[in-house]
Sequence to fold (386 residues):
Amino acid sequence: MRKNAYTIVIIYLLMMLIGIVENVKGPLIINIKTFYGVDYTMMGLFLSVGSFGFILSTFLGGFLADKIGRKSVLISGLILIIAGILGIFAARKFIVFLIFAFVMNMGMGLLEIGINAVASIVFIVNQALMMNLLHFFYGVGAIISPNMTAKLLHINFSWQQVYLTVGAIAFILMLAALEIKIHGEKKHIAGDKIDYIQILSDKRMWLFASMLGFYIASELGVGNWVVTFFSAQYKMDNTISSLYLGLFFAAFTFGRLVGGFIVERIGYIKSLFIFSLVSSILIASGMAGRNFAFLISVAGFFYSIIFPTTIAIVMKEFKQHVTIIIAIILTISSTINMLANFLIGRLNDIFGVFIGFSAILIFMILVVFMSLILAKTETTDDLEKV
Fold:
């Protein structure tokens, strides 16, 4: 582990960068909308274009990692992020802005695949602990980003200059990433022919992808819709609703910091079952009335370990072509998430926000049942079963 210490520090910082880049856009949406003179539908298109770029690059990233190496994928992702930000900074037409937003998000996808690919080699022991700490740094970035953005706007930075500042951070981290050495990478680069049909026919892979897809849909569903739910259902002031959401992410980030230790102690799959079950109970309770709304914030702690722990199980379960398998899983899960959150929006329009928000609960209940199925199908000896 010591010989990989520098590499581990860098991938933690790169995960923090993803949190920064991903969450800088929220506080800037109004500024971007005003600058280009577009409506909210076009801003929705901006978010969708970004999601598509991310999904496409996560699909390609796994194949590239096995062909050109994990470090090359990391650096390529950083180059695309920087190029996209420079294009966004210079764009004077909305269509040009969209193109470079697509490029930037492709870089984000490549970077995330590269980080997970490197982690599959350098996280030799306590993978769940290391993966939870890795994703804790995403939470750190997510906390830093809106606060940094607000401060920069307060001192009269334009929204383009805010993005340029993020690009400068990415450039510094790219220089640091050029110095990493991934010991043992050569033996992980595929020399034999990859049987994609076999990978795609593996029921376990589809189980992992579905579980992550519905988990991500539930997590992002809370982030996207809980303020709307509280405002419409409980007539809460927007400031209070936003505070509850902030507490959800604070609990979520704290869970990423300490959750790995809990997972290592009680077992990977048992942790998935317990944490997803408690998350479901807390979300359902929070929907029972205004006095219980704070329980949705508490649920953030229990949401926290599910994604990194699932990835840690994938690393243990699949001995060959793990990078490609992770890439396929992330592509499928991201697609499920995109469709699921569209469904939430439609349910909100047709049946009201209570029914729409109920879909978020159903997604997490599906994760509970899938963790039980996983416990019965898991073959790795050192994973504790429910």
Q: What stands out?
A: The longest helix spans residues 5-36. The radius of gyration is 20 Å. The chain has a mean pLDDT of 86.
